[in-house]
Amino acid sequence: MTVMRAAFASSFNDADPLAGLTVGEAPAPVPGDGWAVVDVRASALNHHDLWSLRGVGLRPEQLPMILGCDAAGIGPDGAEVVVYPVVFTPSGEVSILSEFYQGTVAEQVTVPAYNLVPKPAELTFAEAACLPTAWLTAYRMLTTKGRVEPDQAVLVQGAGGGVATAAILLAQALGARVYATSRDASKRERVAALGATALDSGARLPERVDVIIETVGEATFDHSMKCAKHGARIVVSGATSGHLPKVNLRRMFALQLEILGTSMGTPEELSALMTLLANTGVRPVIDSIIPFSEARTAFEKLHSGDVFGKIVLDHTT
């Protein structure tokens, strides 16, 4: 059996998720019919990886499970590719890598061949690895669901998270005015440096907005409703503060508001996202690039919460 370096969940621990993290050898993937092996050059971490280590979305019999949803690397024909992380299980259920199939924090990953999306030469492997989960979700929220247009106004709640940070930069690339909220003064400073108008959570905006990017949920949803102009779209892809907010139905129907749920995106949207970045020069915010040989350090940093932007693993080191 051929082995490779990988970071995987070997056990679950809700109180201390890193206790179940193992960095060591794992079986190298063997592609099935219609599947392809990618030599990973860079991967990016998500909070989903910590939830996996807590046992959310996984069963003990699935262990060991290689972690990671995001990766860029070299496909079987030598082309530079980005891995689209959504895969259908044999029962037809939608899954992302590291939930049913082994993940990307490894020297190699195997996925259906149609999950390989060409990487533009303008993007580095580290930049491209940031895109398939958080950035793709933000892109779909703004475009397919939010239908944002140039000169419209966008509110991003809870700035600092991966999707929120991506939404700030992408909304500006699409020509929108961007407001972003955070309770953390240091994060507001960073948001302002990205070009958004930074406001404290719950603050009154200078104008009502056309699109609201909502990943916080219960703590901010009333504020999102109050900031929406007539016909606005409130697009939801997360609920980190709680999933049962009160909704003012009178405001909703009087202003003809739309509340839209979404997650991830399609391979075509991932390709369009990368084209947008290549053409505009916008790049993901990367908190740090850490050698793959120090993968545990990367997970420790993610778990600490002291992160702004993506943590990327360089698989060439």
Could you please describe the fold and organization of this structure?
The structure is a single chain. By secondary structure, the protein is of the alpha/beta class. The chain has helices at residues 47-54, 125-129, 131-145, 162-173, 185-193, 221-227, 249-254, 267-280, 295-304; strands spanning 3-9, 21-27, 35-44, 65-66, 70-74, 80-83, 86-88, 94-96, 108-112, 116-118, 153-156, 177-182, 197-200, 209-214, 228-236, 258-261, 286-291, 310-314. β15, α7 and β16 form a beta-alpha-beta unit. It is globular. The model has no long low-confidence stretch (mean pLDDT 96).
Which features does this protein show?
7-stranded mixed β-sheet, 27% helix, 29% strand, 317 residues, 18 strands, 6-stranded parallel β-sheet, alpha/beta
Quick recap:
This protein is an alpha/beta fold and 317 residues long. The chain is built from nine helices and 18 strands.
The secondary structure category is: alpha/beta
How would you sum up the global shape? globular
Largest sheet: 7 strands, mixed
Radius of gyration: 19 Å
CA-CA gap between termini: 24 Å
Helix content: 25-40%
Write the layout of secondary structure elements.
Elements: E1 3-9, E2 21-27, E3 35-44, H1 47-54, E4 65-66, E5 70-74, E6 80-83, E7 86-88, E8 94-96, E9 108-112, E10 116-118, H2 125-129, H3 131-145, E11 153-156, H4 162-173, E12 177-182, H5 185-193, E13 197-200, E14 209-214, H6 221-227, E15 228-236, H7 249-254, E16 258-261, H8 267-280, E17 286-291, H9 295-304, E18 310-314
Parallel strand pairs: 11-12, 11-14, 12-13, 14-15, 15-16, 17-18
Antiparallel strand pairs: 1-2, 1-4, 3-5, 3-9, 3-18, 5-6, 6-10, 7-8
